[in-house]
Amino acid sequence: EPHNLKRIIDIELKIQKENIKYRNLKPIAKKILKEFNKSLGYLKEQRKEIQPLRKLSDQNVLTYAWGEANFFDFVRNTPIYSIENLQRTYQRLYVLVGNKKYGEYLSYLESLRLTKFRIQPQILRSLLHHKLEYEPPHVHRFIDNMV
Q1: How many Å apart are CA 144 and CA 22, to the nearest integer?
Q2: Which of 4, 52, 54, 72 is the most exposed place for a label (fewest CB within 10 A)?
Q3: Is 73 helix (H, G, I), strand (E, B) or coil?
Q4: CA pair distance 42, 84, nearest whole angstrom
Q5: pTM above 0.90, yes or no
Q6: For residue 144, what are the CA distances in angstroms to 84, 121, 126, 128?
Q7: Left, alpha or beta for 119 (phi > 0: left; psi -120 to 50: alpha)?
């Protein structure tokens, strides 16, 4: 929503402007600000196309995210590929869509996450690929990146 977008952009720009003060963060902060300014027009055009397709308000989306740990490592600037984040994703899908399949995935992921056995990463990935066999390719790429 426009007021939330403005607030988020203002906060992020303020953070990057603060980061310029620190020698080790200055190069990346400058790059982020430069890229943002360069892509602002494109982002505004994309926003015009995407907004009419919205199905949920920001408030509804944030309701599902309140109190959650981050899905993203802000220090390394990379996603966090973990079974917990995969489980949170399916939890949201289950709440939003109510598909029984997602409930089954949730139970399976919870069991794997809470097991007292140490599962080798390659075996865990194999189990997840098998269980989530018919899920979209991006789910399998996520699994491949899990440690």
Answers
A1: 35
A2: 52
A3: strand
A4: 34
A5: no
A6: 15, 10, 9, 10
A7: beta
Buried b (16+ CB within 10 A) or exposed e, 118-142: eeeeeebbeebeeebeebeeebeeb
Distance separating alpha carbons of residues 40 and 46, to the nearest angstrom: 10
Integer Cα distance of 90 and 71 in angstroms = 13
- pLDDT per position as a tens digit, 96-142: 888 899 999 999 999 999 999 889 999 999 999 999 999 999 999 99
Structure tokens at 76: 């390394």
Q: How far apart (Å, rounded) are the C-alpha atoms in residues 53 and 46? A: 12
pLDDT digits (tens, 9 = 90+) for 29-66: 899 899 988 888 888 888 888 888 887 777 777 666 65
